[in-house]
Design brief:
Layout (H helix, E strand, L loop, with lengths): L2 H4 L6 E3 L6 E10 L5 E7 L5 E5 H6 L5
Antiparallel strand pairs: 1-2, 2-3, 3-4
């Protein structure tokens, strides 16, 4: 399974909601039992890395 094949926004920047901090999607790290993919993200303000669901990332707006 490649990010390109799934049309994932790897390397793209998104924002948590309309006014939340921006984050970068860095990689796919796994698949949940419900079929949703887990992504590794990096929050730009803090440098923190976290797991985030693809379904949530798709709902977040792109960051400027």
């Amino acid at each position: 399974m490649t990010a390109q094949a799934l049309e994932l926004p790897i390397g793209r920047f998104r924002r948590f909601g309309a006014v939340g901090p921006a984050y970068q999607i860095t990689e796919v790290i796994g698949e949940r039992p419900d079929g949703d993919l887990l992504l590794r993200i990096r929050v730009l303000e803090s440098g923190e890395e976290a797991e985030y669901r693809l379904s949530q990332a798709k709902d977040d707006p792109e960051a400027d």
